[in-house]
Structure formats: C-alpha cells, structure tokens
C-alpha cells in the first residue's frame, strides 16, 4: 500500500481545510485531496454563522437562534458547542487578521452590493466599515472596475436605513489598466506603489471627500502590503479607510485561502491538488481508499478514516440531472422530491428545496442511507455536501463548513489514534 | 489541419436543423460545452503568470472561451496576443468549472499560426526552430564540443538575437559529450529482465542530449526496484510545438511516439517520463488535440517517474532508512507538474530523509515556460515572472536547486547561479 495516511479528507475548501487541521491536531497523518484551486477564491472572505432564520434577517445572536433551526440542520448535529469549537479553531488559523471574536453578536458588514450582511468574523480591513458605526461614509469605486458601483451601493445602503449618511463616488484609478482589469491588478499596483499610485489615489479621493468620516474601497487596496496602503490613505485623507468584500475573483477570499494553506503546512498536512477523487475501495463494509483519477488512471489513497467535504451543488459535491440528485463520489443517499418541479420555487430568492439538497448525517456526521443506516462506519461529511441547511438564505455557509469540518476532522483523528 | 480549425458552419441559419452530434465536421473538436461552462468568475485571470506582469495580455478567459465565441463570427481574426500565452496551463488548474482552457489556447494558437502568421516572418522561422529543439539538438550533439564552443560564443549569441530574435541574455544549454541513448547502447540496454514489472522510458529531448545523468539515474533507480526498463524510439513530446502553435509538427512527432509506445503497452510496459512537460503532453495534450489510434491508452498509461514509484512501491518505507550527504535543496514545482497533481510529491517524499533539507520555494511560475523565455521580446516578461522564485530561492537555506522540468531548471540556474538537480538524482543517491 504505497500512498497511505491515517485520515484522507476529500475537498480543499473551508470545510475540508478545517477538517484536515482538526484531524492533524489529534496526531494523525492527514492528506487533503482537492481537484482544483480552492473555491475560497470565489468567496467573500467573510465568515457568516447564522444571519437569518426562516427568511427573517438579521439575527443578532446566532448562537441563541440555533434551536429555531430545523432538526435536520447540520448545526443541530454539532450543536452550539460544535459551532464554538469550530470558531475557536478558525480564530487560531487567522490570528490577528480577523475581527469579531470579542462578541457572540453578529456584526453588520457592508457588501459590494450595498446590502448589510450579518457576519461573525471579518477581515481586519473590513472592520472599520461596519454599518453599526454612526460615521458618515463615502464609498469609492473606479471607472472600468465594473464589479463595484459606488453610487448604487450607497443608494442601497441608504434605502436599507443605515444610521449614517452615505454617498458614492466613482473616480479614475491613477493608472489606466486595460479594460476588464481584475481587482488583483489594482492590488498589485498599490502593493508595489507603482508610479506613485498611492499618493495619486489619495489625491483623487480628497477632492470627493467632503467631510465624510470614513472611506470604503472595494477590497483591492493591496495584497501583501494592504495594511501599509490603508494606513497611508488614512493619513492622507484624515479619515478611516476600510475595504468592502467583492465577488470573485475575491482578494479577501484568496487571503483566507493563503492563511489556511499556511496553517495546513504548519500542521504537516499532505496536500494533493490537481486530480479529482472519482471512486473508492472497501473491505467488509469499511472504506479503505479513495481513488483519484490521475489523468486516466485511478490511483488509490489509503487511510483509516475519511472526510467528505466536496461542497454542494455549486461545488459539485452534489450533482443532479433531470431525473435525480446524487452524491457522485460515494453514492450517498440524497433525499429529494421525485417530481423535478418541486425542487425549486417560482421566486428567485424563495425557499427552494434544492438549496437544502445534500447527504443526511447521523449524530456523528456520518452519511446515512435511505433507511437511516450509516453508509460507511469510517466516513464523515462536512460543509456544503451536508443537506438540511439553506446556507445562502440563512447566511450560514462559512459557519456550517467551519463547525462541521472541525467536528468531522476531530472525530476522524480521534478514531485513528484510539 | 482539420481538427484544429474553427468551424464557420454553425451560424444562426444552421439552428433550425440543429443536431448536437453533427454540428462539427468530421474529426473537429467541439469546444462549445467548454466555452459554455465558463461563468466568468475570472479566477483563471488571477492565476495567469503572464497577465500578472504584462498588463497588455488579456488573460486566459479572453484567450479561451471569449475568443472562441468571437471566432464564431466569420470576419473575426484571432488576436495576436495568443502568442504571448506561455502554455503554462495554470488556468486549467484554477478553473472551478472544468473549462478546457489550455486546449482552447492550443487550438487558437494553432489556427493563428496556420492562418494569420506569415511563414516568411522572422518570428515564424525563429519559433519553428525553437519548437523543433529536438532536431536542433540532434544535429548539435553530433559534435557536442564544437557546438558548445560555438553556441557559447558571444558573437554567435548576438547574431542569434539580431537575426533570429533568440535572446543573447541566456547561455545556450550545453550538450553532453555522450547522449543518454549512446550511454544506453554502450551499456547494452536493460540489465534487469522482468515479465511483470516493465517500463518504457520516455526520456524526451533534454535528458537525452543535455542532462543524460537524469536518464541514467532513472534507469538505476527503476532497475533497483526490479523493473525492466526499455528505451523506445521516440521523438519530441510536442510541448514546445504546442506552445508555438506548430500543431502539424506536433502531430507528426505524436504519431511516432504513440505508435511506438502503443506497441510496448501491448507487451505490458507502462510509460515513464522524467520531464513533467513530456508526461503532461502525453497524458493531456495528445488526447485533447489529436486523434491517433491508441492515443487514449498511451495517455492513460503514462506516468511521471516518481509518481509511478510512489503508486507501485513502498518508497516511504525504502527512504525511511536511507541517508545521503547533507544537502539543503530549494525545490521549485514546475507548472506542468502542478497540473498533474505532482507539485508536492518531491517535498513530501524527501522531507524525512536523513541529511536532506527540502524547501518549497513557493507556487510561482519560473517564467521560462519552455521556449517562451528564449524569445528576445519575451525575455523580460519571463524574468519578471521568475522574480518571485529567484527571491525565494535566495531566501531558502539550500544552494542547490531541485525541479523536474528541464527549462525551469535553466531558468533557476540563470536567475541564481545554483546547480539544479532532478529528484531522480537524489533518489539515485539515496537508494542506489
């Protein structure tokens, strides 16, 4: 048995990474298998735990609201204790790069669409922009950076009733990039202060400042040197400067990815990226290996315990065609209405059944079959692949991934060193 | 070349009798599902090493799905920026939606060179020469000492740059005085015979003409594990030809390789490559770009050398008791190794070996990308991309570099002056 570890985690997103870290903590040798670059590049970098229950937002204390969730919700399996354990581990990973750990209550983070998102943890650079602070705010966008419309975002925020004046202004970025330039190009220019861009940017914004207390930019104020860029701008503008999380490709998401990879490397987790997991091997009803398609060849990765963290419908951990919904790797049971027209509602942001599609865990996060029996004794599931939560509507995606990942990884590790 | 041309037969008028299977002419690739899968998240653009340093380069999303769609219109030409794509294939690895970006880039580049590039232009001639490095090397290595002397002459380098556009900044790789194949013949071929452990070695051009020590290490290591090694007739894997849009040249080379290797597969051999771009080419680009009998089987049975041993032997166990002279290495994972999921195996494997200190110098591209960094107009871009890697190599404890890719190795040496080894050489030291 050539490629062998104690624990194999399948899926390199937030749930998989947290599972691998938590399993490694127990002393197990852990391998994390992921097909592509982390999906955190698509994510805002915010950590929401629970922002809405039954369509009512915002929830102020997510921990107090957990018992209003349906019985089959993953939070009901790991419990409030499991959520806290996950967040503690997350706080260890991100250290002083994130805020929010000082309270149980949700912070209200301003998004690039001009909405307010109840959030449990958020990057340091986002913190000064919270909607709860009564400081007059200027949002700044750039011509050519179509991802963020400062004027529209400001109007949305005003309509949402934020307790401060908010205006939007669109300026020219001091360096003219080619059309359709990504936030990463802006960030790189500011990082390296190309062509004196920091000072020129400050000059461009000063003209628009008009006594606002704080200024929000889309999250592109540098990557490696973002704190320095923000400090510089604050000095020149004599105002607080904050970042607004963006859609993909998201700089804040990439920075979270980097923090997680650093932590995984420190924990000596073995990372195998670039090939998809496609099958498995068993022995007497136990999982013995996950097989990975290495360009046409199925190669087994052996372990004693396994964690499935392949994501939901978007992440392809759950797949569907016109007839049915399946978990493609292990064929775990995914309950869904037989009639396809019952999978969704007419309303775009309605209470869709598809949003809760996923595997059904037992009380130890092990996927079960249609009769409620455990699929494999040594397989646990975490994150988006778990059913029962509408994470987009509840604003709970990161929290579900962190708490179930931490739980599944810890249990897998405990089982191997037992 | 019929299978790399874009079809113009799918205009709106053809919609009425749309039939998914017959839209594309015989043998032509249907890239539509790939293009449709792109939801424009632009993550590929943020992982493109060329876009990172060259603001004029539109990035993989444009070069792939967007350009493919534009080309549906009859009067739209392929943008010449396609020639600035270095074919590192990182975008493939970044795409969360399975868009075959590098395949799209390869076909677009092939079509551009076929249809839009003047065959008498200096760029075409230079690219053709670079793409056919194997031929050049065969001639040069027939008289290695003379060639090394001539190519090392600064006057010759200047002429190369002025006349051909091959940068004078780089020293031409030295040819070995004895090629790998000459050594192999001299040695009398395989020393181990086996019915069930058999590998066919695809050495590629570079280990044959320039670094035969890598090929020799491969033979010693595999024979130590009881494998029968054979060295089939072979041509260039095609990597530099894809990168220069010379798909006809690549297909000719591929047909020789596939035919030779197919015969060996039937006799129970698996195919092993020591260069990660060669293995990438045989595994991914061959079946993506060509239709040759046996090509799928060759792709499915090709491995990188270390990968093969890790799957089939207890390498960890063997290395547990091994020790080598103390040495710290600065390891760089080639982009093409990354795309095969091999980017961490050397570090993972050698980390525990007594005497070895192995440090990964980060996930940036080395910037040379085969022939790319040899082009006078691309040299600066190539060095800018490599900056990160050079810095990390400087910071690393080791003053010996390590990588699987011959051209990454040139770039590492060029940027730092370090001596560069292949993991097989360290494995050879540790086990043989």
TrEMBL record, chain A:
Flavoprotein among the record's keywords? yes
The keyword Flavoprotein is annotated on this UniProt entry: yes
Which UniProt keywords are given for this protein, alphabetically ordered?
Answer: Flavoprotein, FMN, Oxidoreductase
Q: What SUPFAM superfamilies does its record include?
A: FAD/NAD(P)-binding domain
Question: Record's superkingdom?
Answer: Archaea
The name this protein carries in UniProt is: Glycerol-3-phosphate dehydrogenase subunit B
Q: Which GO terms describe its molecular function?
A: glycerol-3-phosphate dehydrogenase (quinone) activity
Automatic annotation (TrEMBL), chain B:
Q: Which InterPro entries match?
A: 4Fe4S_Fe-S-bd, 4Fe4S_Fe_S_CS, Cys_rich_dom, G3P_DH_GlpC_su, Helical_ferredxn
Q: Which UniProt keywords apply?
A: 4Fe-4S, Iron, Iron-sulfur, Metal-binding, Repeat
Q: Which GO terms describe its biological process?
A: anaerobic respiration
| Domain 4Fe-4S ferredoxin-type residues, every copy | 74-107
- Gene3D superfamilies recorded for this chain? Alpha-helical ferredoxin (1.10.1060.10)
Q: Which PROSITE patterns match?
A: 4FE4S_FER_1, 4FE4S_FER_2
**Keyword Metal-binding appears in the UniProt entry:** yes
Q: What Pfam families does this protein map onto?
A: CCG, Fer4_8
Which GO molecular function terms does the record list?
Answer: 4 iron, 4 sulfur cluster binding; metal ion binding; oxidoreductase activity
- What are the record's GO terms for cellular component? glycerol-3-phosphate dehydrogenase (FAD) complex; membrane
UniProt-listed PANTHER family = ANAEROBIC GLYCEROL-3-PHOSPHATE DEHYDROGENASE SUBUNIT C, GLYCOLATE OXIDASE IRON-SULFUR SUBUNIT
Under which name does UniProt file this protein? sn-glycerol-3-phosphate dehydrogenase subunit C
Natural source organism:
Halobellus salinus
């Amino acid at each position: 048995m050539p490629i062998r570890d104690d624990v194999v985690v399948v899926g390199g997103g937030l749930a998989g990474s947290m599972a691998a870290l938590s399993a490694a903590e127990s002393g197990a040798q852990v391998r994390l298998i992921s097909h592509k670059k982390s999906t955190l590049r698509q994510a805002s970098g915010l950590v929401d735990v629970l922002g809405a229950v039954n369509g009512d937002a915002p929830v102020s204390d997510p921990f107090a609201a957990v018992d209003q969730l349906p019985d089959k919700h993953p939070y009901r399996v790991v419990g409030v204790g499991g959520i806290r354990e996950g967040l503690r581990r997350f706080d260890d990973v991100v250290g002083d790069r994130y805020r929010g750990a000082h309270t149980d209550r949700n912070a209200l983070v301003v998004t690039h669409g001009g909405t307010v998102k109840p959030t449990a943890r958020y990057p340091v650079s986002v913190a000064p922009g919270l909607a709860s602070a009564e400081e007059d705010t200027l949002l700044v966008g750039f011509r050519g950076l179509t991802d963020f419309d400062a004027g529209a975002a400001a109007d949305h925020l005003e309509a949402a009733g934020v307790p401060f004046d908010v205006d939007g202004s669109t300026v020219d970025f001091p360096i003219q990039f080619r059309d359709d330039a990504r936030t990463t190009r802006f960030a790189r220019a500011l990082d390296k202060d190309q062509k004196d861009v920091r000072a020129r940017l400050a000059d461009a914004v000063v003209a628009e400042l008009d006594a606002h207390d704080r200024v929000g930019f889309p999250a592109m104020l540098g990557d490696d040197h973002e704190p320095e860029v923000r400090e510089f701008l604050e000095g020149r503008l004599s105002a607080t400067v904050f970042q607004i999380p963006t859609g993909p490709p998201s700089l804040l998401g990439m920075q979270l990815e980097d923090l997680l990879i650093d932590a995984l490397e420190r924990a000596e987790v073995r990372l195998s990226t670039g090939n998809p997991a496609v099958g498995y091997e068993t022995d007497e009803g136990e999982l013995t290996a996950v097989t990975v398609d290495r360009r046409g060849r199925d190669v087994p990765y052996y372990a004693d315990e396994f964690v499935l963290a392949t994501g939901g419908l978007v992440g392809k951990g759950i797949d569907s065609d016109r007839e049915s919904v399946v978990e493609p790797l292990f064929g775990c049971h995914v309950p869904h209405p037989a009639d396809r027209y019952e999978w969704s509602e007419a309303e775009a942001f309605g209470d869709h059944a598809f949003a809760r599609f996923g595997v059904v865990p037992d009380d130890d996060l092990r996927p079960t079959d249609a009769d409620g029996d455990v699929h494999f004794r040594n397989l646990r599931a975490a994150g988006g692949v778990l059913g029962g939560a509408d994470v987009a509507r509840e604003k709970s995606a990161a929290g579900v991934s962190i708490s179930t990942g931490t739980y599944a990884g810890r249990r897998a590790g405990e089982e191997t060193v037992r | 070349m019929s299978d790399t041309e874009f079809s113009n037969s799918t205009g709106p008028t053809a919609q009425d009798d749309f039939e998914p299977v017959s839209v594309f002419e015989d043998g032509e690739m249907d890239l539509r599902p790939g293009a449709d899968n792109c939801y424009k998240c632009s993550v590929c653009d943020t992982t493109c090493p060329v876009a990172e340093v060259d603001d004029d380069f539109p990035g993989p999303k444009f070069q792939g799905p967007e350009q493919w769609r534009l080309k549906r219109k009859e009067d739209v030409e392929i943008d010449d920026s396609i020639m600035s794509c270095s074919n590192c294939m990182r975008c493939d690895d970044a795409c969360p939606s399975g868009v075959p970006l590098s395949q799209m880039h390869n076909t677009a580049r092939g079509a551009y060179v076929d249809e839009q590039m003047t065959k008498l232009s200096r760029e075409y001639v230079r690219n053709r020469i670079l793409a056919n490095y194997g031929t050049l090397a065969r001639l040069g290595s027939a008289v290695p000492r003379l060639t090394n002397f001539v190519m090392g002459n600064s006057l010759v380098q200047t002429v190369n740059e002025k006349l051909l556009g091959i940068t004078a900044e780089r020293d031409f790789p030295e040819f070995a005085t004895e090629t790998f194949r000459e050594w192999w013949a001299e040695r009398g071929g395989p020393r181990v015979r086996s019915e069930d452990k058999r590998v066919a070695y695809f050495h590629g051009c570079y280990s044959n003409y320039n670094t035969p020590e890598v090929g020799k290490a491969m033979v010693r290591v595999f024979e130590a594990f009881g494998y029968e090694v054979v060295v089939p007739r072979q041509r260039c894997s095609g990597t530099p030809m894809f990168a220069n849009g010379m798909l006809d040249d690549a297909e000719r080379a591929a047909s020789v390789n596939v035919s030779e290797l197919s015969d060996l597969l039937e006799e129970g051999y698996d195919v092993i490559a020591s260069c990660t771009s060669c293995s990438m080419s045989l595994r991914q680009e061959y079946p993506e770009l060509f239709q040759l009998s046996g090509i799928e089987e060759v792709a499915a049975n090709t491995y990188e050398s270390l990968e093969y041993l890790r799957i089939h032997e207890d390498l960890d166990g063997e290395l547990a008791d091994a020790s080598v002279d103390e040495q710290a290495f600065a390891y760089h994972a080639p982009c093409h190794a990354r795309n095969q999921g091999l980017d961490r195996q050397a570090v993972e494997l050698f980390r525990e070996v007594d005497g070895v200190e192995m440090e990964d110098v980060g996930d940036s591209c080395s910037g040379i990308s085969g022939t790319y960094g040899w082009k006078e107009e691309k040299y600066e871009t190539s060095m800018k991309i490599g900056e990160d890697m050079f810095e990390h190599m400087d910071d690393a404890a080791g003053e010996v570099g390590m990588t699987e890719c011959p051209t990454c190795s040139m770039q590492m040496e060029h940027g730092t002056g370090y001596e560069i080894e292949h993991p097989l050489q360290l494995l050879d030291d540790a086990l043989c």
